[in-house]
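ligand=iron/sulfur cluster
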Amino acid sequence: MGVFDYKRRRSDDVNVGGVHLGGDNAVRIQSMANTSTMDTDGSVSQALRMASAGAEYIRFTAQGVREAENIGEIRRRMRAAGCDVPLVADIHFNPRAAYAAVPNVEKVRINPGNFVDPGRTFRKIDYTDEEYRAELERVESAVEPFVLECKRHGTAIRIGVNHGSLSDRIMSRYGDTPAGMVESAMEFLRVCRKVDFGNVVISIKASNVVVMVETVRRLVKAMDAEDMHYPLHLGVTEAGDGEDGRVKSAVGIGTLLAEGVGDTIRVSLSEDPECELPVARALVDYVATCADARHIEGGYAEGYDPVMPDRRVTVAVGNIGGRNVPVVVAEDCGAAYPSDCKPDVFLNDSHLKFRAVDASELLCNVPEIAPDEIILLSSRHANRSGELKAAFHKLMSAGVGNPVVVSVRYDGVSADEAVIRASVDCGSLLMSGFADGLMIESDALTPGQSARLAFGILQSARLRITRTEYVACPGCGRTLFDLQTTLARVKEATSHLKGLKIGVMGCIVNGPGEMADADYGYVGAGVGKISLYKGKECVEKNIPAEEAVERLVELIKREGDWK
Ligand code: SF4
């Protein structure tokens, strides 16, 4: 087995109500209801629709004991309707609700950032080593009885760490960093191991794709170091909706799946939960095709760190490579492009010299490349990103510093499929430190759509910001306003604000923390009430929902960020 062949990470088999994940099981797909958990009829109907759309696990929020117990009633009704999909309770801040959920669901998700520790205060607390140890003992004495309760009932646990909802303890020692997120997970995993509880899945999510990928890679390394093989649930939180939400999810989740990491995934979109499942299915199926691909020769270039890779160093040719942002390249076929996604370079109308190279040929023999040539690198391998990565390593090992534009083509598939496939392939290369430009083509996409997709992938990988970034949660039983309509209105009013990051979050409980580094936030504060944030600070509280979008616009103008 070569470094670039597709190989799943070894993980333990976990039984979630008879639907196993990890081990040799296929990657499972799942979603979360956005109905009120106390609305039994509405929740059952939505869960049945999600099951029909392919959900293999369905999650409900359980704010309190009442909701946790009502999931039991939802489960009874679903079973009576012939649906056996295991249910998961999502717990934040309320251990009593977690205990109440244990006999009523097949899995309980707890958040280490708020299961034992109170809500984050953003205060810096300096713990001595002794105080920190005492804190860990406190965590252990609170988590252990809960784990034993799950063991008694045969209920699985997901330890779900989120960027932006870490405890003050972790924040004080590690900051809001990948290292902090990993340690937050490891603290809880060590308790599970101590009491020999193996029915555990772990997730570590962020809305920032780069943070999410780095953190999961670090977590795998940390678990390996302690000989732990707990399966992983992958997701990009608050990915938003439409193509941007799909691209962000496919870049983050797809990068890791392509590396063989991940046992279950959730694509979080600010849309009806049923819409998440075909996207998740397409992602998992596309990466699964790599598993059967033939062997790819090659190994890592010397000094390459697969956990935190540096960007490949290249010598600029014109505006490509070197310190330039990655470019979008296209053939000029006379098509009209929207003004915000016009390619930077047209192949047939450029003074730059491009040299087309197929990755499989390059792997046999690195050709002579003149210093003023830009490599246009393509692959026809079934494991395309694997072969392209191998080619990049070969170039690095051979000391070739010419810029590389990755050229990928997806014909004979739907537009949705092309978006997912390009995001997985190009995303995983960018997240490995490769590519000075992208050229995406598909017979299902117009030239304008292809260019837009390339810009979207670059933005998801945080390499080039060309549009407003929305950090929008998918909504759940805590959401008290119409998230989809609101997000559409916020986008309509602000989509010209290139580079600004705007959070649209369903609830005040998790929203402010989880929109993490947004410049502005629109957060549900109660029925018909919205609070507005400038960075982490709440600047307008409980304003009527019908005025909130206009007030957000006024706030952005007042702060001087309106262009
Ligand atoms: S931020 Fe959104 S998805 Fe998360 S708990 Fe609140 S309403 Fe639910």
